[in-house]
Design a protein that fits this description.
Blueprint lengths: L7 E2 L7 H11 L8 H16 L18 E4 L2 E4 L2 E3 L2 E5 L9 H11 L3 E5 L2 H4 L14 H10 L3 E5 L31 H8 L19 H11 L1 H10 L10 E5 L11 H15 L4 E7 L2 H7 L7 E6 L5 H9 L10 E6 L15 H12 L4 E8 L10 E3 L6 E3 L19 H11 L24 E5 L13 E3 L14 E8 L6 E4 L3 E2 L1 E7 L10 E7 L6 E3 L8 E8 L15 E2 L4 E2 L2 E2 L3 E6 L12 H8 L17 E9 L8 E4 L6 E5 L2 E6 L8 E4 L7 E6 L1
Parallel strand pairs: 1-16, 5-6, 5-12, 6-7, 7-8, 8-9, 9-10, 10-11, 11-12
Antiparallel strand pairs: 2-3, 3-4, 13-14, 15-28, 16-27, 17-23, 17-27, 18-22, 18-25, 19-24, 20-21, 20-23, 25-26, 28-33, 29-32, 30-31, 30-33
Helix pairs in contact: 1-7, 6-7, 8-9, 12-13
C-alpha cells in the first residue's frame, strides 16, 4: 500500500515540520540577547491596532466607489438612501454543488429573500498549510458574483470561527499538529498572529512586553501557514462590496463570540484587520445570543461595529430588540435577527429535527410586521459532503454528539432543493405580505430518478493492505500518536501493537479516545490463515471497557484498533478536539507500548483523488470478485465497489443511495466523497447524490 510517508520513529514527537523549526530555533538560542531590542519594537507595533481608535460606521471612502451605498441611520437600514428591510436567509456555497448554486439562489429569491448570508470556512479554503483554494466548492468569488447577477445582497461571515456545524467551526485541522497549539479565538499571540498579521512582518515573539524570547518556530510556522488567510481572502472581496458594485452589504466579525469568550482585544484586532482590507464604508457586524451576558461579552461598544442578535424561534422578539439597542450607538440599532431558526440540526442517534411550518411562519411575521429584519437560518441547508460535518458536546467533553451528513435542517428549501413543502409555502406567504416587490414565480423541483439495485463486490479487506512487520508506510512510537501528528487529519487511522498470549480474558481500556474505535485481535503465528477477529467497538460517548477473549496463540497477539474521526467539535468549551487515541492504552491495568500507526488516505471534499494504494486496489479490481468463506459473516472492515450505467445524458438526474442493512462507513461516487453513512445508528439511512456527480456511461461506487 502506498501511503506517501516514510517510516519514522517519533518518540520525541517530531512528526511535524514545526518540530524541525523548533530544533533550528534552539540552535539559535545563543542569539537571544540580540533580539531584546527587536522584542520591544515589535511588541509595541503589535499593540498599535488595539490602541488605535476604531473607524465609525459613518466613515466614508472613495476607493472604487460607485453611486451606491448601504448604511445604518435612525435605527434603520438604508440602501441607496431608501429605507430597507433585510429579509434574508443562510445558504452556504460549500454545502451545495456549484452547478446547483443558481437553482438554490433562485428558489431563495422566489421565497421572498432579498439577502443571502453565508459563512466562509477557513479549513475548506486552506486544507493544508499555505495552500489556499478558491476553486470548485470553494469558488466563493463566483458564488458572490452569481448572487449579484440575480439581484441578491450578501451578508458575509468570514470568521475566522464560524461554528456552522462544520468541522472544528471552520478552523484548519492542521492547527492541532502545531506546537505549541494556538489558543483559539483569543488575543493570545500564538493564535492572533495566525489570523492578524496582514502587515507582512515576520514576528518572532509575543505581544507581551516581557523580555522572554519566544521560540522562532512558533511564529515562523504560523506566519507562513496562516497569516495569509484574511490577507488572501479579504482583498478578493473588495470589488464585491456593495459600494463598489458588488452584493456584499455587511461583513461579520467572529461568530456568537459572547457565548464563548470575553476578549475585547481579540475582537478589536479583527475589526482593525477587516477595515485595513475592506475600507471604512462596509458595515461590520457581530451576532450574539439575545441575552445580556452574551451581548456584554460579544459586542464592541460604539458605532464602529453593528451588533445583531439571534434567539429561539417563538421568543418574543421585541424585548430582545430593545436590549439590542443598549449595545449599539444611538440611532444605529435596526432590529435584526441574524439567525432566525427555521429548523434545527440533527446528530447521529437522534430523531430528525422538525419544526412546525405554521409556527415558524407566524414567528417570522412577528418580526417583519413591525419593520424588523430577519435572516432565516437556514433557508437551504444542503449537505456535509466529505468529512466536514462537525459535532457538539453536552455538559461534559465525553458527551460527544456528531452531526449527520445531511444538513437539511428542516429548512424551507430541502437538502435536495425541493420546495414543494408546507414550510416553504407558509414562509413565502408571510414574506409576500411585507416584501417591497412582487415575489418571483417558484422554480420547479429538480428531477430525480431511481437507478435500481446495484450489486456491490468486496474487493479487499482493509487489513490486507498493510504489512504489519516490515511496512515502510508507518509511524512508530512508544505511545499512540494523534491523527493530526501523523498527518491523518480526517477519516481513519489504524493503531497496531502486540500483547502476550498468556491465557484468559483481558480488559482493554482507552481513557481518551476520539471518536470511535473498532477493535480486532489476531494471531500472527496462525498458519491456517484465520482472519482478524472482531472484538467490539469503543465509543467516545460511552468510553466503555472491552474484554478481549482468550486467543490460543504461539506468539504475541496482534491488537488492531481502527479509529474514526467523526467530526471535530464546532461549538462550546470543548472545541479543542484532537483526534485518534489521545492517552495511553491499558490492558489489565498495564500500559501497552510499541505502537505502529498506519494512515488511511481517503480524499475529502473538493480534493483531487490521489488514487493511493487503497483506492488503486479497489478500482483495479473492477470486474473481479473476491471469494472468501468469510464473505457474509466477517465484521472485518473491507472495501466494496460496484457500478451502474446511464444510457443517455438526459437520464443523468439526482438520486439517493440507500444504505439499509449496511453498517458504517464513507461512500464515494465517481471519486466524489458523498459523506458518512451509519444506518444502524440512524436516523439518516440515505445519502443524497446530486446529478452533477454522475455522468452518462458507467458510474462507479466505492465504500
Amino acid at each position: 500500500m502506498i501511503i506517501g510517508v516514510k517510516k519514522r520513529n517519533v518518540n520525541a514527537a517530531s512528526a511535524s515540520s514545526a518540530s524541525k523549526l523548533l530544533a533550528m530555533a534552539k540552535k539559535r538560542s545563543s542569539k537571544a540577547t540580540l533580539l531584546l531590542i527587536f522584542i520591544s519594537f515589535t511588541a509595541l507595533y503589535a499593540f498599535l491596532p488595539v490602541l488605535a481608535p476604531l473607524p465609525s460606521l459613518s466613515s466614508s471612502s472613495h476607493h472604487n466607489k460607485v453611486n451606491r451605498n448601504f448604511e445604518i441611520s435612525r435605527d434603520m437600514f438604508w440602501k441607496d438612501s431608501q429605507p430597507f428591510q433585510i429579509i434574508g436567509g443562510d445558504l452556504h456555497y460549500f454545502r451545495v454543488h456549484p452547478q446547483y448554486w443558481e437553482d438554490r439562489l433562485l428558489k431563495a429569491k422566489a421565497l421572498g429573500l432579498n439577502t443571502i448570508q453565508t459563512y466562509v470556512p477557513w479549513n475548506l479554503h486552506e486544507p493544508s498549510p499555505g495552500r489556499h483554494v478558491f476553486e470548485g466548492f470553494a469558488d466563493i468569488e463566483s458564488f458572490l458574483k452569481l448572487c449579484n447577477k440575480l439581484g441578491l445582497l450578501v451578508m458575509l461571515r468570514p470568521g475566522p470561527y464560524i461554528c456552522a456545524e462544520w468541522d472544528w467551526g471552520g478552523f484548519p485541522a492542521w492547527f492541532s499538529s502545531m506546537s505549541p497549539s494556538p489558543k483559539l479565538r483569543s488575543s493570545d499571540p500564538t493564535f492572533l498572529h495566525l489570523v492578524l498579521v496582514g502587515c507582512g512582518l515576520f514576528l518572532y515573539l509575543s505581544l507581551c512586553l516581557s523580555v522572554a524570547v519566544i521560540e522562532v518556530s512558533t511564529y515562523y510556522s504560523f506566519l507562513f501557514k496562516v497569516e495569509r488567510w484574511w490577507g488572501n481572502l479579504l482583498p478578493k472581496l473588495v470589488p464585491l462590496l456593495y459600494q463598489n458594485g458588488g452584493p456584499i452589504i455587511m461583513v461579520q466579525i467572529e461568530n456568537e463570540y459572547g457565548s464563548y469568550g470575553n476578549d475585547k482585544a481579540y475582537l478589536q484586532h479583527l475589526v482593525v484587520l477587516a477595515r485595513s482590507h475592506l475600507g471604512p464604508d462596509i458595515i461590520l457586524y457581530t451576532t450574539d445570543g439575545g441575552a445580556r451576558e452574551n451581548l456584554e461579552k460579544g459586542t464592541i461598544r460604539g458605532d464602529a461595529v453593528y451588533s445583531a442578535v439571534d434567539f429561539s424561534t417563538g421568543d418574543d422578539p421585541w424585548p430582545i430588540f430593545e436590549l439590542q439597542k443598549k449595545y449599539n450607538a444611538p440611532g444605529k440599532s435596526p432590529p435584526l435577527s441574524a439567525e432566525f431558526y427555521t429548523g434545527w440540526l440533527t446528530h447521529w442517534g437522534e430523531k430528525i429535527a422538525k419544526t412546525d411550518a405554521d409556527f415558524t411562519a407566524a414567528s417570522l411575521e412577528k418580526i417583519l410586521q413591525k419593520n424588523g429584519s430577519a435572516v432565516l437560518y437556514m433557508a437551504h441547508g444542503g449537505t456535509n459532503f466529505g468529512f466536514y460535518s462537525g459535532a457538539n458536546t453536552g455538559s461534559a467533553e465525553a458527551d460527544y454528539q456528531p452531526d449527520l451528513t445531511s444538513y437539511d435542517y428542516d429548512a424551507p428549501i430541502r437538502e435536495d432543493g425541493d420546495v414543494d413543502n408546507s414550510k416553504y409555502n407558509a414562509i413565502r406567504k408571510v414574506i409576500a405580505r411585507y416584501s417591497s416587490v412582487p415575489l418571483p414565480s417558484v422554480p420547479s423541483n429538480i428531477q430525480k430518478t431511481a437507478y435500481g439495485p446495484i450489486h456491490l463486490q468486496r474487493k479487499t479487506f482493509l487489513f490486507d493492505e498493510f504489512n504489519f512487520t516490515s511496512s515502510t508506510n508507518v509511524f512508530e512510537s512508544e505511545q499512540p500518536m494523534s491523527m493530526e501528528s501523523v498527518g491523518q487529519l480526517f477519516g481513519f487511522l489504524l493503531y497496531v501493537t502486540q500483547y502476550k498470549a498468556n491465557g484468559g480474558i483481558k480488559t482493554l481500556l482507552i481513557p481518551k479516545l476520539h471518536d470511535r474505535a473498532q477493535v480486532f485481535i489476531s494471531c500472527p503465528s496462525d498458519v491456517t490463515g484465520a482472519r482478524p477477529s472482531y472484538v467490539g467497538a469503543i465509543e467516545r460517548w460511552s468510553n466503555n471497557k472491552l474484554n478481549l477473549p482468550n486467543l490460543k496463540c504461539h506468539s504475541n497477539i496482534n491488537l488492531l484498533i481502527l479509529v474514526e474521526n467523526m467530526g471535530r467539535v464546532n461549538y462550546g468549551p470543548y472545541i479543542f478536539d484532537g483526534k485518534g487515541i489521545l492517552s495511553s492504552v491499558y490492558l489489565d491495568g498495564e500500559i501497552l507500548h510499541r505502537w505502529k500507526m498506519f494512515p488511511i488516505p481517503l480524499h475529502n471534499l473538493n480534493e483531487v483523488p490521489t488514487h493511493n494504494g487503497i483506492m488503486q486496489v479497489a478500482y483495479s479490481a473492477r470486474g473481479k470478485r473476491l471469494t472468501s468463506k468469510y464473505e457474509n459473516t466477517s465484521r472485518e472492515p473491507a472495501f466494496y465497489s460496484g457500478h451502474f450505467s446511464i444510457d443517455k445524458s438526459s437520464e443523468v438526474k439526482d438520486t439517493y443511495i440507500s444504505f439499509n442493512n449496511w453498517g458504517k462507513g464513507i461512500a464515494f461516487v465517481n471519486d466524489f466523497d458523498i459523506g458518512r453513512y451509519w444506518p444502524l445508528r440512524g436516523p439518516q439511512c440515505n445519502l443524497y447524490v446530486p446529478a452533477p456527480v454522475l455522468k452518462q456511461g458507467n458510474n462507479y461506487l466505492f465504500w
